[in-house]
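User: Hi! I have a protein structure encoded as tokens and I'd like to know what sequence might fold into it. I'm fairly new to this, so please keep things simple.
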């Protein structure tokens, strides 16, 4: 039923998954767990659409939804690349706010929600591709900080593609197989190198090459990894260009490919 789904987020408070369909310009809320009163013929492998929001404006003035994240209270944040803004939706998928804009953001492409730090509240982090920075906002859109990602690795380095809140920090997918890890205050504190070619898979637990733990070189035509998803003890790295995904442990070590 989807046209071009580009991102999803988990509403843990209501046990629902939000799916952002850029092709249809819709945000949909799906319940994936079987309900107690579900009929016997209910297929528990299938989700049930609970609610949907049409993001296209009546005058078709243009919206380019790119990413969605959800906070602990169930509020959703949708990146609109056309307006360089973030839409805020309540738990019933009603738009309750909009912030950002061209005077703050340039080319927002992803969003994540960081847990409270030092007694403060949740923070919304927006990845800006053009400015190579993470913009930190309060849930109401008040700018709190701007964390530069640092210069690209070279003149032909890929653009950053995704940000993921992970523990008390976050991981930025810098493209080309590099996942850079940052602490909760924006300081880089390490990197994870993802496996990038099925023919380069080494021994279990390695990240490629000949099984010695050395990163494998990118093969010709390598498509930069896309979205990065957190699933508890594992990370899921999606590669749209190769139509596949990889499973990593939380230290970035390759486990399997699908």
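Assistant: Happy to help. Inverse folding works backwards from shape to sequence: for each of the 258 positions I chose a residue that suits the local structure. Here it is:
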């Amino acid at each position: 039923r989807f046209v071009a789904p580009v991102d999803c987020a988990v509403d843990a408070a209501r046990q629902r998954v939000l799916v952002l369909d850029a092709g249809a310009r819709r945000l949909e809320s799906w319940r994936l767990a079987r309900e107690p009163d579900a009929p016997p013929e209910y297929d528990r492998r299938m989700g049930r659409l609970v609610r949907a929001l049409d993001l296209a404006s009546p005058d078709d003035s243009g919206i380019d939804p790119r990413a969605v994240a959800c906070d602990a209270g169930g509020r959703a944040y949708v990146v609109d690349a056309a307006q360089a803004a973030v839409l805020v939706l309540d738990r019933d998928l009603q738009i309750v706010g909009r912030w950002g804009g061209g005077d703050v953001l340039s080319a927002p492409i992803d969003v994540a929600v960081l847990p409270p730090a030092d007694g403060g509240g949740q923070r919304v982090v927006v990845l800006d591709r053009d400015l190579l920075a993470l913009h930190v906002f309060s849930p109401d859109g008040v700018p709190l900080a701007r964390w530069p990602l640092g210069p690209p690795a070279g003149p032909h380095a890929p653009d950053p593609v995704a940000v993921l809140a992970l523990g008390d920090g976050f991981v930025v997918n810098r493209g080309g197989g590099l996942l850079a890890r940052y602490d909760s205050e924006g300081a880089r504190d390490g990197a994870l190198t993802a496996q990038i070619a099925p023919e380069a898979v080494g021994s279990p637990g390695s990240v490629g090459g000949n099984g010695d733990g050395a990163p494998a070189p990118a093969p010709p035509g390598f498509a930069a990894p896309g979205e990065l998803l957190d699933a508890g003890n594992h990370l899921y790295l999606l590669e749209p260009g190769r139509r596949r995904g990889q499973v990593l442990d939380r230290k970035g070590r390759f486990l399997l490919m699908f």
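A useful reference point when you look it over: DSSP finds no helices and 20 strands in the chain. Feel free to ask if any position seems puzzling.
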